């Protein structure tokens, strides 16, 4: 059995988990989706809700480094699946993994303390995160020596990237717009004076990628996820983390699983389980 490093549990959860099968979710530093440096993160909220809406599976989170994610959910890896991941971020084209329809919108761009020029010169330093894929480097994961690609100073986290920009150690920092939106609500002092580039470096949608050894199949998992998306507090939770779902009109997961969802009563109810962050502050 795969050994989780972190599990979303709560003293109010009275369900009997002794017979539940662990489902290990790989997660790397990618706020606001997941961060060990944040007291609350979106993935933790999702795991808490999943574990409170059913008793067949016990979802847990195992932290990994970004560059380890491909091995992590392989047949002999430590984990069963990864959430909020784009298949364009270095995933091999093989039948080993199962990929869900798109779930979330996302984008990354350069941020700076200046707005005079967004064309980095040969002496300008750009900071990014090790293991991340950026449009400016043609979606390569690590530093490259190819002359026509812009070299990136790689750090351990987006938080460090932001600190380097604020301390004038680099001219440009590559940050996700989701992370900056979350900071604007929760830590606005950190983004005062930080200016976004007018054009995104990359625009993406994120999915769930399921490994070959996962005890939960994609259909079962997506039904649970979609039911969460239609709950009373889903919109509030998404707004709190600055996230936006891919809608049915945009080809989101609701379209692919509409035939399955028809078997459930998905109208939001007052007894919907509240996310931990909402319960805590009421």
Automatic annotation (TrEMBL):
This is Amino acid ABC transporter substrate-binding protein.
């Amino acid at each position: 059995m795969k050994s989780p490093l972190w599990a979303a549990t709560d003293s109010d959860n009275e369900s009997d988990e002794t017979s539940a099968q662990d489902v290990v979710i790989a997660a790397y530093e990618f706020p606001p989706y997941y961060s060990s440096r944040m007291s609350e993160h979106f993935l933790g909220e999702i795991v808490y809700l999943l574990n409170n809406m059913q008793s067949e599976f016990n979802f847990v989170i195992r932290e990994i480094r970004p560059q380890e994610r491909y091995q992590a959910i392989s047949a002999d890896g430590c984990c069963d699946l990864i959430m909020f991941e784009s298949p364009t971020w270095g995933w091999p084209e093989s039948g080993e993994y199962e990929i869900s329809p798109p779930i979330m919108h996302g984008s990354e761009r350069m941020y700076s303390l200046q707005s005079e020029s967004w064309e980095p010169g040969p002496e300008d330093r750009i900071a990014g995160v090790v293991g991340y894929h950026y449009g400016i480097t043609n979606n390569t994961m690590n530093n490259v020596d190819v002359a026509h690609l812009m070299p990136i100073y790689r750090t351990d986290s987006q938080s460090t990237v932001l600190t380097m920009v604020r301390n004038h150690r680099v001219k440009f920092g590559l940050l996700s717009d989701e992370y900056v939106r979350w900071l604007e609500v929760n830590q606005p002092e950190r983004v005062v004076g930080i200016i976004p580039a007018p054009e995104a470096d990359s625009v993406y949608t994120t999915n769930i990628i399921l490994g070959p050894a996962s005890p939960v199949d994609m259909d079962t998992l997506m039904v649970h996820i979609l039911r969460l998306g239609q709950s009373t507090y889903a919109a509030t939770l998404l707004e709190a983390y600055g996230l936006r779902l891919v809608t049915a009109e945009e080809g989101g997961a609701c379209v692919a699983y509409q035939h399955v969802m028809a078997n459930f009563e998905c109208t939001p109810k007052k007894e919907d389980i509240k996310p931990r962050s909402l319960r805590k502050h009421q």
